[in-house]
Amino acid sequence: MINVALPKGRLGEKVYDMFERAGYECPSIKENTRKLIFENKEKGIRYFWVKPSDVSIYVERGSADIGVAGKDILLEYAPDVYELLDLNMGKCRMAVAGKNEFYDDGSRTLKVATKFVNIAKKHYASKCRDIDIIKLNGSIEIAPILGLSDVIVDIVETGKTLMENNLSVMETIVPISARLISNKSSFKFKTEEIEKIVKCMKDQVRTDD
């Protein structure tokens, strides 16, 4: 039995559809139920829904053999897992944004609000820029508006929220998309089954998404 951690929400539903098209269907997962674990013994696969940011933890710790996590999570928390496939969905970017009129002249320590602390630190370290990290958990966009920070480091999808708040992207740090990941031990002992899933999933990846 291959255990698969799926991220709750719209992305997870799209990912499950990929698994279904790849021949790993589990009809009960589409029933209107509060169940969190679903299995198809005939196909040898078991799915369970978890919070998107927790997928990599379940996979790293071995509760799931494989799972789907955003590249942002993999970069921020650096879990000890194998990254097997870019699913080319859930596409967005990690970016630096600030007020439209803001210009960083480098004369003082830059105040950076973000929930992606490690990504922000690594990005600015590569530029040898002194920063003051302000860790926030939500509504990051409000930080520069209220003067809490100079800029933010956050995920940008359409940029509409930024625009409506007179903010704009100053630079893109890295493109983000959903990745199929594997527990290292599982990959060692279930290589054939996991590689078969990867091959079938690869056929479902839409490069024009």
Structural descriptors:
8 helices; 209 residues; 30% helix; alpha/beta; five-stranded mixed β-sheet; six-stranded mixed β-sheet; single chain
Helix and strand content put the structural class at: alpha/beta
Number of DSSP strand runs? 11
Shape: elongated
Low-confidence stretches: none
Helix content: 25-40%
| H-E order | EHEEHEHEEEHEHEHEEHH
Cα-based radius of gyration, to the nearest Å:
19 Å
Distance between the termini: 31 Å
Overall pLDDT metric: 95
**What profile does the largest beta sheet have?**
6 strands, mixed
Query: Which range does the strand content fall in?
Result: 25-35%
Quickly describe the structure:
The chain is of the alpha/beta class and 209 residues long.
Overall description:
- The protein has helices at 10-21, 55-60, 71-77, 117-126, 142-145, 160-164, 184-189, 191-202; strands at residues 2-7, 37-40, 45-50, 66-70, 81-86, 92-99, 110-114, 131-135, 151-156, 167-176, 178-183.
- The chain is of the alpha/beta class.
- The longest helix is centred in the first third of the chain and has 12 residues, at 10-21.
- It is elongated.
- The model has no long low-confidence stretch (mean pLDDT 95).
